[in-house]
TrEMBL record:
<keyword id="KW-0456">Lyase</keyword>
<comment type="similarity">
    <text>Belongs to the ferrochelatase family.</text>
</comment>
<comment type="function">
    <text>Involved in coproporphyrin-dependent heme b biosynthesis. Catalyzes the insertion of ferrous iron into coproporphyrin III to form Fe-coproporphyrin III.</text>
</comment>
<keyword id="KW-0408">Iron</keyword>
<keyword id="KW-0963">Cytoplasm</keyword>
<comment type="pathway">
    <text>Porphyrin-containing compound metabolism; protoheme biosynthesis.</text>
</comment>
<feature type="binding site">
    <location>
        <position position="128"/>
    </location>
    <ligand>
        <name>Fe-coproporphyrin III</name>
    </ligand>
</feature>
<feature type="binding site">
    <location>
        <position position="59"/>
    </location>
    <ligand>
        <name>Fe-coproporphyrin III</name>
    </ligand>
</feature>
<protein>
    <recommendedName>
        <fullName>Coproporphyrin III ferrochelatase</fullName>
        <ecNumber>4.99.1.9</ecNumber>
    </recommendedName>
</protein>
<dbReference type="InterPro" id="IPR033659">
    <property type="entry name" value="Ferrochelatase_N"/>
</dbReference>
<dbReference type="Pfam" id="PF00762">
    <property type="entry name" value="Ferrochelatase"/>
</dbReference>
<dbReference type="InterPro" id="IPR033644">
    <property type="entry name" value="Ferrochelatase_C"/>
</dbReference>
<feature type="binding site">
    <location>
        <position position="289"/>
    </location>
    <ligand>
        <name>Fe(2+)</name>
    </ligand>
</feature>
<dbReference type="InterPro" id="IPR001015">
    <property type="entry name" value="Ferrochelatase"/>
</dbReference>
<keyword id="KW-0627">Porphyrin biosynthesis</keyword>
<keyword id="KW-0479">Metal-binding</keyword>
<keyword id="KW-0350">Heme biosynthesis</keyword>
Length: 382
C-alpha cells in the first residue's frame, strides 16, 4: 500500500458536528443545549425557535450529516480504506459523549476528528475541542480508558472544499437573467461572530494585513479571491465581490462582524447593481442559517428591492469533499508517522496547522480543550 494511503495510527474517523432538532418538540431542548449556562429564559428560546418552527421544527443539518457520512463511507470503501466512520454532535443526538463511548467499547483507541467547520475561530474550532475534552473527561469518570483524539486541520482552502463552491457560483450566475449576469456582484457570506473573537482567531501570522478580523476573516477573504479568479477564468468576467455576514446573535451592544447580508443588498441596490449571487462559503452544508437567513430572509429582502438574486450551493456531501476528507485523514496519519505528506491548499495562505497552538482562538473563560498543543489528558490543558 502506498505510504500516503496508510491510515495508521488511526483506527477510526469521527464526524463531529453541531446538531439540530428533528421535530417541533426538540426545538426548545436543543436551544437549551446550545445556550446552556447563559441564563436565557425558556420563553425567549421559544421566540428564537420560530426559525425552526417555520420548517416543521426540523433543522436540515442532521440529514445532511447522514448524507456526508454515507459519502465518506462510500469514498473510503472505493479507495480500499478500511476505517470505520462514526458521527457525533455537540448539541443534539447522536451526542458526542455517547458516540465516543461507543467508539471506546468498539475498541477504538486513536481517533481522527473532522469538525463540520472549515475556518479558524473560537466557535468553529476551540469550542469543538472543549466539547471533546468534556466528553473525554466524562468517559474517564465512568472508568473507561479515554482514547486519543486528533482534530484534522482547517480545510477552508482544500481543493475538494473550494472547487464545488466554484461550480456553485458558476451555476448561480447562469440562473440570473441574461441581461443582468455580466454585471452581477458576488456576496460571499459567512456567519458573523463578535469582532473580539474574530480579532483573536488563529495564529497572529494568519491574520489580515491590518490585523482586524484575525485568521477568520483572512481565510474567508483568501477563499473568496480563489473563487472569483476561477470564475473569471471560466467566464472571462471579473465580477465585483465582497465578504459579508449573516446570522448575527447576542447582545446588541457587542460589536459583531459587518455588513449584514440584508444591509449589503440594500447598498448594492442603491448603487444600481443589476443582480447578486449570494455564495455561503462559510458553511459546509445548507443548514438552518442558510435556509432561513439567506433563502428566506435575504431572498425576501431582495424581492422587496426588486433585485434579482440567486444563492449558490454549499459543498454538502459532494464526492470531491468526501475525497478531501480522505486526503486530510491520510495526510495527518502520515505526519503522525513522521513522514512528510503532500498537503493540498489553494490561495495564498497555505495548509493550516495540524495542532492548534497555545492561545489560538482563546475562550472567554479558559477551559480544557483537547487535540491542541495545550492538551495532555482528560483533565489537563486550558
Amino acid at each position: 500500500m502506498p505510504e500516503q494511503s496508510v491510515p495508521a495510527p488511526y483506527d477510526a474517523l469521527l464526524l463531529l458536528s453541531f446538531g439540530g432538532p428533528e421535530g417541533p418538540d426538540d426545538v426548545v431542548p436543543f436551544l437549551e443545549n446550545v445556550t446552556r449556562g447563559r441564563g436565557i429564559p425558556r420563553e425567549r428560546l421559544k421566540e428564537v425557535g420560530q426559525h425552526y418552527f417555520l420548517f416543521g421544527g426540523v433543522s436540515p443539518i442532521n440529514a445532511q450529516n447522514r448524507e456526508l457520512l454515507d459519502a465518506l463511507r462510500k469514498d473510503f470503501a472505493e479507495h480500499g480504506l478500511d476505517l470505520p466512520v462514526y458521527w457525533g454532535n455537540r448539541n443534539w443526538a447522536p451526542y458526542l459523549t455517547d458516540t465516543l463511548r461507543d467508539m471506546v467499547r468498539d475498541g477504538r483507541r486513536r481517533i481522527a476528528v473532522l469538525a463540520t467547520s472549515a475556518y479558524a475561530s473560537y466557535s468553529g474550532c476551540r469550542q469543538y475541542r472543549e466539547n471533546l475534552a468534556d466528553a473525554l473527561a466524562a468517559l474517564a469518570a465512568e472508568g473507561l480508558e479515554a482514547p486519543q483524539v486528533d482534530k484534522l486541520r482547517h480545510y477552508f482552502n482544500h481543493p475538494g472544499f473550494v472547487r464545488p463552491m466554484v461550480d456553485g457560483v458558476l451555476a448561480s450566475l447562469a440562473e440570473l437573467p441574461e441581461d443582468a449576469r455580466a454585471g452581477a456582484h458576488i456576496a460571499f457570506t459567512t456567519h458573523s461572530i463578535p469582532t473580539a473573537a474574530a480579532d483573536t482567531s488563529g495564529r497572529p501570522e494568519e491574520h489580515t494585513e491590518d490585523g482586524a478580523g484575525g485568521a477568520y476573516v483572512a481565510q474567508h477573504l483568501d477563499v473568496a479571491k480563489v473563487i472569483v479568479e476561477a470564475v473569471r477564468e471560466e467566464t472571462g468576467i471579473a465580477h465585483p465581490w465582497q465578504l459579508v455576514y449573516q446570522s448575527r446573535s447576542g447582545a446588541p451592544h457587542i460589536p459583531w462582524l459587518e455588513p449584514d447580508i440584508c444591509d449589503h443588498l440594500e447598498t448594492l441596490h442603491t448603487q444600481g447593481v443589476p443582480a447578486v449571487v449570494m455564495a455561503p462559503i462559510g458553511f459546509v452544508s445548507d443548514h438552518m442559517e442558510v435556509k432561513y437567513d439567506l433563502d428566506t430572509e435575504a431572498t425576501a429582502k431582495a424581492a422587496e428591492l426588486g433585485l434579482p438574486v440567486t444563492r449558490s450551493a454549499t459543498v454538502g456531501a459532494d464526492p470531491r469533499f468526501a475525497a478531501a476528507v480522505r486526503d486530510l485523514l491520510l495526510e495527518r496519519a502520515a505526519a503522525e508517522r513522521d513522514r512528510a505528506p503532500k498537503r493540498c491548499a489553494l490561495g495564498t495562505l497555505g495548509p493550516s496547522h495540524d495542532l492548534c497552538p497555545v492561545g489560538c482562538c482563546p475562550a472567554r473563560t479558559p477551559r480544557p480543550a483537547a487535540a491542541g498543543a495545550d492538551w495532555s489528558g482528560a483533565t489537563a490543558g486550558a
